[in-house]
Design goal:
This protein is an alpha/beta fold. It is built from ten helices and 17 strands. The termini are far apart.
């Protein structure tokens, strides 16, 4: 029986596009067959590097999606284009992997869900941390009941690149119309997904947001531009089963790299993980008649976890894992982001 070869179209040729192309290269039955970017120079350069014919080098996302030679799309573009590209893929019946966040607003999310319900296509949203060994291991611990009843989940996601000392320039990420929100959409969405992955749906949320740096230099114009999105977001929540949650994120944390830490507290034990050490889990349990305390650091085998894009290919071949984040996960995530934003604006807890 022959193995199907999947021809992939890449939309967005920045760092995320390179990241996905590098990972695709590890999947033997996939190949990049077409590329697309609004930057014609980038299309030309990458097209030459990949030795793609001129007719497979696009600057219009609608054209690459409609290309009958392309089996599925990987989209890694700025937030303002997520909705339109997903709409085009759904209308064309083209399977698509789209980066998070799902959309900028709930209006966009609602429109997409209606289109999807009328014409479902395979769609994966890029909540990549589900595929870290530590996440997979802890998910199994929770499923097996090793921690007992989960009472509390806590997480923070910290980086330092937006601190004033680094003079980070103005980009689309600091523009609400283009990004939807700031740090919340960028990396806070990963915390929301982690909570849903480990525990379940949100039922209540109360948020706080702040902008630390009001203006940043736009190097394209040489002038300062107003920042109208959040540099900091914190939120408390209740998840299904009455699990309490506490979360915060910002990029003003001097000395941090990509510090995404998650802790789950159960009746029988506590487990901690960090994406900076994705192959490591810290587990604390009490057991036996004397409630003896045991603390262990568990080192995990990276080869035991299926890569994210491999799971998407398996999705197309109807043999994907239960971890795969679908369009519904994207939609639910966006609901929580919007509830956090709304709560932060008026100080009122939101129910979901």
């Amino acid at each position: 029986m022959s193995v199907k070869q999947w021809n992939v179209g890449i939309i967005g040729l920045g760092g995320i596009g390179d990241y996905h192309m590098n990972n695709l290269a590890k999947i033997t039955n996939t190949s990049v067959a077409a590329i697309c970017d609004v930057n014609a120079k980038a299309v030309e350069q990458v097209g030459e590097r990949l030795n793609l014919p001129a007719e497979k080098r696009y600057t219009d996302y609608r054209a690459i999606i409609a290309d009958p030679d392309i089996d599925f799309i990987i989209s890694g573009v700025s937030n303002q284009f997520h909705c339109d590209i997903l709409k085009a893929a759904i209308a064309c019946g083209k399977p698509i992997f789209s980066e998070k966040p799902f959309t900028r607003t709930m209006e966009e999310a609602d429109d997409l869900l209606k289109l999807y319900d009328a014409n479902p296509v395979p769609c994966m949203i890029g909540f990549s941390y589900r595929y870290r060994p530590c996440f997979q291991y802890v998910k199994q611990l929770v499923t097996d009941g090793a921690l007992g009843r989960i009472r509390h989940i806590a997480a923070h996601y910290l980086q330092e690149e937006n601190a004033p000392m680094f003079n980070k320039e103005y980009t689309w990420r600091f523009n609400k119309a283009m990004a939807g929100s700031g740090i919340l959409a960028d990396i806070g969405s990963h915390m929301v997904d982690a909570a849903r992955f480990f525990v379940g749906e949100f039922t209540q949320v109360s948020g706080m947001m702040a902008t630390f740096t009001d203006r940043r230099l736009d190097k394209r114009t040489g002038e300062y531009a107003e920042v109208d999105v959040d540099d900091f977001t914190g939120f408390q929540c209740v998840l299904e089963g009455g699990v309490m949650g506490s979360f915060y994120t910002h990029k003003n944390a001097i000395g941090t790299g990509n510090q995404f830490n998650v802790t789950l507290f159960g009746d029988l034990g506590t487990v901690r993980m960090s994406v900076e050490k994705p192959n490591e889990v810290h587990l604390t349990l009490r057991s036996g008649d004397n409630l003896q305390l045991t603390e262990s650091v568990i080192h995990l085998d990276t080869k035991s976890v299926k890569p994210m894009l491999q799971d998407f290919v398996d999705y197309l071949e109807q043999r994907h894992s239960a971890s795969l984040p679908t369009i519904i996960d994207g939609y639910r995530n966006q609901q929580v982001l919007q509830a956090i934003i709304d709560s932060a604006q008026d100080g009122v807890t939101r129910s979901l």
